[in-house]
Amino acid sequence: MKMPISEIIDRYTITKLKSERTEEDVNIELLAYKNEIDLYSSNLDKYISLMYEINSKIWDTESDIRKGTKLPLEEIGRLALRVRDLNCERNSIKATIVDKFSEGFKEIKINYKKINYGRN
């Protein structure tokens, strides 16, 4: 089964963050995703930017949780809820990409809310 473009963009942006924020060499993986993205005739920059931004926020928040051994439980809970809400936004962006390219599947979660990102 071919990977849908929504998943490729998601994985590409996560791998890009990994290349920028860790010492791990992910150049081959990053190039593989970029090559798949380049096969699409449509300009995907808007979707890549949205997905990069939301995955960056999730990365930062999850990092705060991992560093949170000295945080009160209420703060860790608040951060966990923030990750949940950010994942709803992430799923909404992916759903928009699924709609646009008519490929892949939408992730439906409890309390899922689709956010309109400039679509009419």
Q: What is this structure, in a nutshell?
A:
This protein has 4 helices and no strands.
Protein architecture, described:
This protein has 120 residues and is an all-alpha fold. The chain has one domain. 67% of the residues lie in helices and 0% in strands. The protein has four helices and no strands. It is flat. The model has no long low-confidence stretch (mean pLDDT 86).
Compile the SSE list and pairings.
Elements: H1 5-21, H2 27-38, H3 45-66, H4 73-101
N-to-C SSE series? HHHH
Largest sheet: none
- What percentage of amino acids are in beta strands? under 5%
Kindly state the percentage of residues in helix: 55-70%
Average pLDDT, all residues: 86
Which class do the helix and strand fractions yield? mainly alpha
Net shape: flat
Over all CA atoms, what is the radius of gyration? 16 Å
Q: Given the structure, what is the number of helices?
A: 4
**Terminal residue distance:** 31 Å
Give unreliable regions as ranges: none
Total domain modules = 1
Oligomer: single chain
Number of beta-strand segments: 0
Quick tags:
single chain, 120 residues, mainly alpha, 4 helices, flat
